[in-house]
Write a structure and sequence with these properties.
The structure holds 2 protein chains of 2 kinds.
Chain A lengths: L2 E6 L2 E6 L4 H7 L23 E4 L6 E2 L10 E3 L3 H17 L14 H8 L16 E2 L5 E4 L8 H9 L5 E4 L6 E4 L16 H5 L5 E3 L11 H12 L6
Parallel strand pairs in A: 1-5
Antiparallel strand pairs in A: 1-2, 3-4, 3-5, 6-7, 7-10, 8-9
Chain B lengths: L3 E7 L5 H7 L4 H8 E5 L12 E7 L2 E3 H13 E7 L1 H5 L12 H9 L19 E6 L9 E3 L6 H12 L15
Parallel strand pairs in B: 1-2, 1-3, 3-5, 5-7
Antiparallel strand pairs in B: 4-6
Protein name (chain B): Oxidoreductase
GO molecular function (chain B): iron-sulfur cluster binding; oxidoreductase activity
InterPro entries (chain B): Hydrogenase_assoc-protein (IPR051349), NADH_UbQ_OxRdtase-like_20kDa (IPR006137), NiFe_Hase_small_N_sf (IPR037024)
Protein backbone atom coordinates (compact mmCIF):
# COMPACT_ATOMS: atom_id res chain seq x y z
CA UNK A 1 0.00 0.00 0.00
CA UNK A 2 1.51 3.27 -1.10
CA UNK A 3 1.00 6.45 0.85
CA UNK A 4 0.49 9.73 -0.96
CA UNK A 5 1.11 13.10 0.57
CA UNK A 6 -0.92 16.07 -0.53
CA UNK A 7 -2.04 19.49 0.64
CA UNK A 8 -5.66 20.34 1.31
CA UNK A 9 -6.48 23.91 2.36
CA UNK A 10 -2.80 24.51 3.25
CA UNK A 11 -2.83 21.45 5.51
CA UNK A 12 -0.33 18.69 4.71
CA UNK A 13 -2.01 15.29 4.86
CA UNK A 14 -1.24 11.72 3.88
CA UNK A 15 -3.66 9.29 2.31
CA UNK A 16 -3.71 5.75 0.98
CA UNK A 17 -3.15 5.47 -2.75
CA UNK A 18 -6.63 4.14 -3.53
CA UNK A 19 -8.45 6.86 -1.60
CA UNK A 20 -10.44 9.68 -3.13
CA UNK A 21 -9.89 13.32 -2.24
CA UNK A 22 -13.19 13.25 -0.35
CA UNK A 23 -12.14 10.28 1.82
CA UNK A 24 -8.71 11.77 2.48
CA UNK A 25 -10.25 15.11 3.43
CA UNK A 26 -12.81 13.51 5.74
CA UNK A 27 -10.08 11.53 7.51
CA UNK A 28 -8.17 14.76 8.02
CA UNK A 29 -11.26 16.39 9.49
CA UNK A 30 -11.89 18.61 6.47
CA UNK A 31 -15.57 18.65 5.54
CA UNK A 32 -16.53 18.94 1.88
CA UNK A 33 -20.28 19.33 1.18
CA UNK A 34 -21.90 16.36 -0.56
CA UNK A 35 -25.38 15.33 -1.61
CA UNK A 36 -25.28 12.34 -3.98
CA UNK A 37 -22.42 10.73 -2.04
CA UNK A 38 -23.40 7.97 0.37
CA UNK A 39 -20.73 6.03 2.24
CA UNK A 40 -20.86 2.33 1.37
CA UNK A 41 -22.20 2.58 -2.17
CA UNK A 42 -20.46 3.59 -5.37
CA UNK A 43 -19.74 7.25 -6.12
CA UNK A 44 -21.29 8.88 -9.19
CA UNK A 45 -20.16 12.52 -8.99
CA UNK A 46 -23.64 13.65 -10.01
CA UNK A 47 -24.47 16.57 -7.72
CA UNK A 48 -21.17 18.48 -8.21
CA UNK A 49 -21.29 19.90 -4.68
CA UNK A 50 -17.94 18.33 -3.78
CA UNK A 51 -16.09 20.07 -6.63
CA UNK A 52 -12.63 21.20 -5.53
CA UNK A 53 -9.82 23.26 -7.06
CA UNK A 54 -6.62 21.40 -7.85
CA UNK A 55 -3.53 23.53 -8.56
CA UNK A 56 -2.31 23.19 -12.11
CA UNK A 57 -5.74 22.25 -13.46
CA UNK A 58 -8.30 24.70 -14.77
CA UNK A 59 -11.06 22.12 -14.42
CA UNK A 60 -12.79 21.69 -11.10
CA UNK A 61 -12.85 18.06 -10.02
CA UNK A 62 -15.48 16.21 -7.95
CA UNK A 63 -13.72 15.10 -4.77
CA UNK A 64 -15.83 11.93 -4.45
CA UNK A 65 -14.53 10.34 -7.66
CA UNK A 66 -11.05 11.87 -7.95
CA UNK A 67 -8.19 9.77 -6.58
CA UNK A 68 -5.47 11.39 -4.50
CA UNK A 69 -2.05 11.90 -6.11
CA UNK A 70 1.39 12.72 -4.80
CA UNK A 71 1.96 16.45 -4.32
CA UNK A 72 -1.61 17.50 -5.12
CA UNK A 73 -2.50 20.98 -3.85
CA UNK A 74 -6.23 21.29 -3.25
CA UNK A 75 -8.59 24.06 -2.19
CA UNK A 76 -12.00 22.89 -1.00
CA UNK A 77 -13.70 26.11 0.05
CA UNK A 78 -12.58 29.04 -2.11
CA UNK A 79 -14.96 31.90 -2.78
CA UNK A 80 -15.51 30.59 -6.30
CA UNK A 81 -16.47 27.15 -4.98
CA UNK A 82 -18.79 28.66 -2.39
CA UNK A 83 -20.53 30.63 -5.14
CA UNK A 84 -20.89 27.55 -7.32
CA UNK A 85 -22.23 25.49 -4.43
CA UNK A 86 -24.86 28.04 -3.56
CA UNK A 87 -25.81 28.18 -7.24
CA UNK A 88 -26.16 24.38 -7.36
CA UNK A 89 -28.46 24.38 -4.33
CA UNK A 90 -30.51 27.21 -5.83
CA UNK A 91 -30.85 25.26 -9.06
CA UNK A 92 -32.06 22.21 -7.15
CA UNK A 93 -34.67 24.30 -5.33
CA UNK A 94 -35.80 25.99 -8.55
CA UNK A 95 -35.91 22.74 -10.53
CA UNK A 96 -38.22 20.74 -8.25
CA UNK A 97 -41.11 21.65 -5.96
CA UNK A 98 -39.43 21.87 -2.57
CA UNK A 99 -41.81 23.28 0.02
CA UNK A 100 -39.96 22.79 3.31
CA UNK A 101 -42.82 23.97 5.52
CA UNK A 102 -45.15 21.13 4.49
CA UNK A 103 -42.55 18.44 3.81
CA UNK A 104 -42.34 15.15 5.73
CA UNK A 105 -38.60 15.71 6.08
CA UNK A 106 -38.74 19.32 7.32
CA UNK A 107 -35.92 19.63 9.84
CA UNK A 108 -34.30 16.33 8.79
CA UNK A 109 -33.42 17.12 5.19
CA UNK A 110 -29.97 17.23 3.65
CA UNK A 111 -31.09 19.67 0.94
CA UNK A 112 -32.54 22.03 3.55
CA UNK A 113 -29.35 21.74 5.62
CA UNK A 114 -27.19 22.43 2.57
CA UNK A 115 -29.23 25.57 1.82
CA UNK A 116 -28.45 26.77 5.35
CA UNK A 117 -24.79 25.85 4.98
CA UNK A 118 -24.51 27.76 1.69
CA UNK A 119 -26.21 30.80 3.19
CA UNK A 120 -29.10 30.59 0.73
CA UNK A 121 -31.65 33.13 2.00
CA UNK A 122 -33.52 33.16 -1.32
CA UNK A 123 -33.39 31.62 -4.79
CA UNK A 124 -32.28 34.02 -7.52
CA UNK A 125 -33.44 31.74 -10.34
CA UNK A 126 -36.97 31.44 -11.65
CA UNK A 127 -38.85 28.55 -10.06
CA UNK A 128 -39.87 25.99 -12.66
CA UNK A 129 -42.87 24.50 -10.81
CA UNK A 130 -42.73 21.28 -12.84
CA UNK A 131 -45.72 18.96 -12.90
CA UNK A 132 -44.59 15.87 -11.01
CA UNK A 133 -46.42 12.92 -9.49
CA UNK A 134 -46.72 11.14 -6.16
CA UNK A 135 -46.84 7.35 -5.93
CA UNK A 136 -48.26 5.86 -2.71
CA UNK A 137 -49.22 2.52 -4.21
CA UNK A 138 -46.69 0.66 -2.05
CA UNK A 139 -47.99 -0.77 1.25
CA UNK A 140 -45.25 0.71 3.42
CA UNK A 141 -43.56 3.50 1.48
CA UNK A 142 -44.29 6.38 -0.84
CA UNK A 143 -42.42 8.54 -3.32
CA UNK A 144 -43.07 12.21 -4.00
CA UNK A 145 -41.20 13.12 -7.17
CA UNK A 146 -41.67 16.82 -6.38
CA UNK A 147 -38.98 16.46 -3.71
CA UNK A 148 -36.56 14.26 -5.66
CA UNK A 149 -33.12 15.72 -6.48
CA UNK A 150 -32.08 12.75 -8.66
CA UNK A 151 -29.08 11.90 -6.49
CA UNK A 152 -29.67 8.21 -7.35
CA UNK A 153 -28.84 7.05 -3.84
CA UNK A 154 -32.00 4.90 -3.88
CA UNK A 155 -30.94 3.33 -7.17
CA UNK A 156 -27.51 2.47 -5.80
CA UNK A 157 -28.50 1.11 -2.36
CA UNK A 158 -31.17 -1.03 -4.02
CA UNK A 159 -28.74 -2.37 -6.58
CA UNK A 160 -25.56 -2.63 -4.55
CA UNK A 161 -26.70 -3.35 -0.98
CA UNK A 162 -30.03 -5.12 -1.48
CA UNK A 163 -28.98 -6.60 -4.83
CA UNK A 164 -32.39 -6.07 -6.37
CA UNK A 165 -32.26 -3.04 -8.68
CA UNK A 166 -35.94 -2.16 -8.40
CA UNK A 167 -35.03 1.52 -8.87
CA UNK A 168 -33.61 3.12 -11.97
CA UNK A 169 -33.66 6.44 -13.79
CA UNK A 170 -35.81 7.16 -16.83
CA UNK A 171 -36.16 10.20 -19.08
CA UNK A 172 -33.69 12.87 -20.09
CA UNK A 173 -32.85 16.35 -18.84
CA UNK A 174 -35.68 18.05 -16.96
CA UNK A 175 -37.86 14.98 -17.58
CA UNK A 176 -35.49 12.66 -15.69
CA UNK A 177 -37.12 10.77 -12.85
CA UNK A 178 -36.60 7.62 -10.82
CA UNK A 179 -38.78 4.63 -11.65
CA UNK A 180 -39.55 1.25 -10.13
CA UNK A 181 -39.23 -1.87 -12.30
CA UNK A 182 -40.55 -1.17 -15.81
CA UNK A 183 -41.84 2.32 -14.98
CA UNK A 184 -44.86 0.99 -13.12
CA UNK A 185 -46.51 1.85 -9.79
CA UNK A 186 -44.19 0.95 -6.92
CA UNK A 187 -46.90 -1.21 -5.31
CA UNK A 188 -47.00 -3.45 -8.38
CA UNK A 189 -43.24 -4.02 -8.44
CA UNK A 190 -42.41 -7.73 -8.39
CA UNK A 191 -38.75 -7.16 -7.49
CA UNK A 192 -39.12 -4.78 -4.51
CA UNK A 193 -38.45 -6.63 -1.25
CA UNK A 194 -39.84 -3.73 0.85
CA UNK A 195 -36.50 -3.61 2.70
CA UNK A 196 -36.68 0.19 3.03
CA UNK A 197 -33.01 0.87 2.26
CA UNK A 198 -34.00 3.41 -0.39
CA UNK A 199 -36.08 5.28 2.17
CA UNK A 200 -33.18 5.24 4.64
CA UNK A 201 -30.82 6.54 1.95
CA UNK A 202 -32.95 9.36 0.54
CA UNK A 203 -31.53 12.80 1.42
CA UNK A 204 -34.87 14.62 1.13
CA UNK A 205 -38.54 13.84 1.75
CA UNK A 206 -38.92 12.22 -1.70
CA UNK A 207 -38.97 8.71 -0.22
CA UNK A 208 -40.95 8.35 2.98
CA UNK A 209 -42.68 5.87 5.26
CA UNK A 210 -46.43 5.74 4.74
CA UNK A 211 -48.28 7.65 7.42
CA UNK A 212 -45.53 10.15 8.21
CA UNK A 213 -46.62 13.76 8.24
CA UNK A 214 -44.81 17.12 8.28
CA UNK A 215 -41.39 16.87 9.89
CA UNK A 216 -41.86 13.25 10.97
CA UNK A 217 -39.75 11.50 8.35
CA UNK A 218 -36.32 10.86 9.81
CA UNK A 219 -34.18 8.80 7.44
CA UNK A 220 -32.48 6.00 9.35
CA UNK A 221 -28.97 6.42 7.98
CA UNK A 222 -27.54 4.21 10.78
CA UNK A 223 -29.20 1.21 9.13
CA UNK A 224 -27.23 1.74 5.94
CA UNK A 225 -24.06 2.24 7.96
CA UNK A 226 -24.68 -1.02 9.83
CA UNK A 227 -25.15 -3.01 6.63
CA UNK A 228 -22.06 -1.46 5.06
CA UNK A 229 -19.95 -2.22 8.15
CA UNK A 230 -21.29 -5.76 8.26
CA UNK A 231 -20.35 -6.36 4.66
CA UNK A 232 -17.06 -4.54 4.39
CA UNK A 233 -15.62 -4.95 7.89
CA UNK A 234 -17.49 -8.10 9.00
CA UNK A 235 -18.81 -6.24 12.03
CA UNK A 236 -22.22 -7.62 12.91
CA UNK A 237 -22.57 -6.14 16.39
CA UNK A 238 -24.43 -2.88 16.82
CA UNK B 1 -34.13 61.35 16.18
CA UNK B 2 -37.61 60.77 14.81
CA UNK B 3 -39.07 57.33 15.05
CA UNK B 4 -38.63 54.88 12.18
CA UNK B 5 -41.74 54.58 10.03
CA UNK B 6 -42.59 50.87 10.02
CA UNK B 7 -45.24 49.12 7.94
CA UNK B 8 -46.34 45.51 7.55
CA UNK B 9 -48.23 44.15 4.56
CA UNK B 10 -50.19 40.92 4.20
CA UNK B 11 -50.35 39.50 0.67
CA UNK B 12 -50.82 35.84 -0.35
CA UNK B 13 -50.07 34.17 2.96
CA UNK B 14 -51.86 32.76 6.00
CA UNK B 15 -50.97 35.65 8.39
CA UNK B 16 -48.83 33.24 10.39
CA UNK B 17 -45.84 35.57 9.94
CA UNK B 18 -47.88 38.38 11.48
CA UNK B 19 -48.83 36.03 14.35
CA UNK B 20 -45.14 35.36 14.84
CA UNK B 21 -44.55 39.12 14.87
CA UNK B 22 -46.97 39.32 17.82
CA UNK B 23 -44.85 36.64 19.51
CA UNK B 24 -42.28 39.41 20.04
CA UNK B 25 -44.37 39.96 23.19
CA UNK B 26 -42.98 42.59 25.56
CA UNK B 27 -40.28 43.60 23.09
CA UNK B 28 -43.13 45.16 21.10
CA UNK B 29 -43.07 47.96 23.72
CA UNK B 30 -39.39 48.61 22.98
CA UNK B 31 -40.17 48.53 19.28
CA UNK B 32 -43.07 50.96 19.68
CA UNK B 33 -40.72 53.38 21.45
CA UNK B 34 -38.39 53.43 18.47
CA UNK B 35 -40.71 52.82 15.53
CA UNK B 36 -44.04 54.21 14.47
CA UNK B 37 -46.39 51.72 12.84
CA UNK B 38 -47.92 53.55 9.89
CA UNK B 39 -49.66 50.77 7.95
CA UNK B 40 -50.48 47.19 8.94
CA UNK B 41 -53.27 44.59 9.24
CA UNK B 42 -52.90 45.32 12.97
CA UNK B 43 -54.25 48.86 12.53
CA UNK B 44 -56.93 50.72 10.67
CA UNK B 45 -55.16 52.43 7.80
CA UNK B 46 -56.70 52.28 4.34
CA UNK B 47 -53.96 53.84 2.25
CA UNK B 48 -50.31 52.86 2.18
CA UNK B 49 -48.52 56.10 3.06
CA UNK B 50 -45.50 57.74 1.42
CA UNK B 51 -42.09 57.75 3.03
CA UNK B 52 -42.13 54.40 4.84
CA UNK B 53 -38.67 53.50 6.17
CA UNK B 54 -39.09 49.76 6.63
CA UNK B 55 -41.80 47.37 5.47
CA UNK B 56 -42.29 43.70 6.29
CA UNK B 57 -44.09 42.01 3.39
CA UNK B 58 -45.76 38.71 4.21
CA UNK B 59 -47.06 36.44 1.46
CA UNK B 60 -46.52 35.65 -2.19
CA UNK B 61 -47.87 37.53 -5.20
CA UNK B 62 -50.96 35.49 -6.07
CA UNK B 63 -53.59 37.89 -7.44
CA UNK B 64 -54.02 41.21 -9.21
CA UNK B 65 -54.49 43.10 -5.96
CA UNK B 66 -51.21 41.74 -4.54
CA UNK B 67 -49.46 42.82 -7.72
CA UNK B 68 -50.78 46.38 -7.51
CA UNK B 69 -50.14 46.58 -3.74
CA UNK B 70 -46.53 45.42 -3.96
CA UNK B 71 -45.76 48.01 -6.66
CA UNK B 72 -47.17 50.79 -4.44
CA UNK B 73 -45.35 49.41 -1.41
CA UNK B 74 -42.05 49.29 -3.26
CA UNK B 75 -42.42 52.80 -4.60
CA UNK B 76 -43.23 54.27 -1.17
CA UNK B 77 -40.77 52.33 1.01
CA UNK B 78 -37.06 52.69 1.54
CA UNK B 79 -36.31 49.16 2.76
CA UNK B 80 -38.45 46.17 1.77
CA UNK B 81 -38.15 42.94 3.74
CA UNK B 82 -39.45 39.66 2.29
CA UNK B 83 -41.11 38.38 5.43
CA UNK B 84 -41.49 34.60 5.65
CA UNK B 85 -41.33 31.68 3.23
CA UNK B 86 -44.34 32.66 1.07
CA UNK B 87 -42.77 36.03 0.30
CA UNK B 88 -39.30 34.51 -0.15
CA UNK B 89 -40.11 31.30 -2.07
CA UNK B 90 -43.84 31.20 -2.89
CA UNK B 91 -44.14 28.33 -0.38
CA UNK B 92 -47.65 26.95 0.24
CA UNK B 93 -49.27 29.77 -1.72
CA UNK B 94 -47.39 28.60 -4.81
CA UNK B 95 -48.36 24.93 -4.37
CA UNK B 96 -51.00 25.50 -7.05
CA UNK B 97 -48.48 26.46 -9.73
CA UNK B 98 -47.71 22.94 -11.00
CA UNK B 99 -51.44 22.49 -11.72
CA UNK B 100 -51.25 25.09 -14.49
CA UNK B 101 -52.92 28.48 -15.03
CA UNK B 102 -55.92 30.10 -13.35
CA UNK B 103 -58.54 28.06 -15.21
CA UNK B 104 -56.94 24.74 -14.33
CA UNK B 105 -56.59 25.77 -10.67
CA UNK B 106 -60.19 27.00 -10.31
CA UNK B 107 -61.48 23.92 -12.11
CA UNK B 108 -59.52 21.72 -9.72
CA UNK B 109 -60.87 23.54 -6.65
CA UNK B 110 -64.46 24.30 -7.63
CA UNK B 111 -65.07 22.05 -10.61
CA UNK B 112 -65.08 18.28 -10.68
CA UNK B 113 -64.02 17.79 -7.07
CA UNK B 114 -67.01 19.60 -5.54
CA UNK B 115 -70.15 17.50 -5.61
CA UNK B 116 -72.87 20.05 -4.87
CA UNK B 117 -73.28 23.32 -6.78
CA UNK B 118 -69.84 23.22 -8.28
CA UNK B 119 -69.53 26.70 -9.68
CA UNK B 120 -66.52 28.91 -10.06
CA UNK B 121 -66.90 32.10 -8.02
CA UNK B 122 -66.67 35.33 -9.99
CA UNK B 123 -67.26 38.71 -8.37
CA UNK B 124 -65.62 41.31 -10.59
CA UNK B 125 -64.53 44.37 -8.63
CA UNK B 126 -64.87 42.56 -5.31
CA UNK B 127 -62.73 39.41 -5.51
CA UNK B 128 -59.44 40.18 -7.23
CA UNK B 129 -58.64 37.85 -10.14
CA UNK B 130 -55.90 35.28 -9.57
CA UNK B 131 -52.63 35.49 -11.44
CA UNK B 132 -51.68 32.55 -13.64
CA UNK B 133 -48.58 31.93 -11.59
CA UNK B 134 -47.83 32.65 -7.93
CA UNK B 135 -44.38 34.19 -7.52
CA UNK B 136 -42.13 35.23 -4.66
CA UNK B 137 -41.96 38.96 -4.00
CA UNK B 138 -38.45 39.38 -5.44
CA UNK B 139 -39.68 38.08 -8.79
CA UNK B 140 -41.82 41.24 -9.09
CA UNK B 141 -39.98 44.05 -7.25
CA UNK B 142 -36.47 44.42 -5.80
CA UNK B 143 -36.17 43.11 -2.23
CA UNK B 144 -33.59 44.43 0.24
CA UNK B 145 -33.64 41.84 3.02
CA UNK B 146 -34.82 38.21 3.13
CA UNK B 147 -36.32 36.88 6.35
CA UNK B 148 -37.20 33.21 5.71
CA UNK B 149 -39.12 30.79 7.90
CA UNK B 150 -42.63 29.38 8.03
CA UNK B 151 -43.20 31.40 10.05
CA UNK B 152 -39.95 33.17 10.93
CA UNK B 153 -39.53 32.69 14.70
CA UNK B 154 -39.92 35.88 16.76
CA UNK B 155 -36.22 36.02 17.68
CA UNK B 156 -35.35 35.98 13.98
CA UNK B 157 -37.71 38.90 13.34
CA UNK B 158 -36.22 40.71 16.33
CA UNK B 159 -32.66 40.20 15.05
CA UNK B 160 -33.58 41.89 11.77
CA UNK B 161 -35.57 44.73 13.33
CA UNK B 162 -32.93 45.44 15.98
CA UNK B 163 -30.15 45.90 13.48
CA UNK B 164 -32.44 48.08 11.36
CA UNK B 165 -33.21 50.28 14.35
CA UNK B 166 -29.47 50.65 14.90
CA UNK B 167 -29.18 51.90 11.35
CA UNK B 168 -27.46 48.77 10.03
CA UNK B 169 -28.45 46.59 7.10
CA UNK B 170 -29.47 43.28 8.70
CA UNK B 171 -27.43 40.19 7.96
CA UNK B 172 -28.85 36.96 9.28
CA UNK B 173 -26.46 34.26 10.45
CA UNK B 174 -26.60 31.00 8.51
CA UNK B 175 -28.40 29.34 11.41
CA UNK B 176 -31.21 31.90 11.05
CA UNK B 177 -32.04 31.45 7.39
CA UNK B 178 -33.64 28.00 7.47
CA UNK B 179 -36.71 27.55 5.27
CA UNK B 180 -39.69 25.72 6.72
Amino acid sequence: MTVKTLTINDQLISAREAETILQAAQEAGIQIPTLCYLAGVSEVGACRLCLVEISGSHKLQPACVTKVAEGMVIQTNSERLQNYRRMIIEMLFAEGNHVCSVCVSNGHCELQNLAVEMGMDHVRLEYQFPHRTVDVSHDRFGIDHNRCVLCTRCVRVCDELEGVHTWDVAGRGAKSHVITDLNQPWGTSSTCTACGKCVAACPTGALFDQGSTVGEMVHDRARIEFIVNARQKRQWQL
Amino acid sequence: MSRVKLATVWLGGCSGCHMSFLDLDEWLFDLAAQAELVYSPFMDAKVYPEGVDVVLVEGAIANQEHLETICTVRARSRLLISFGDCAVTGNVTALRNPLGGVEAVLQRCYGGTVEAQGQIPAEPGIVPPLLDRVTPVHAVVPVDVYLPGCPPPADRIRTVLESLLQGETPRLEKSQIRFG
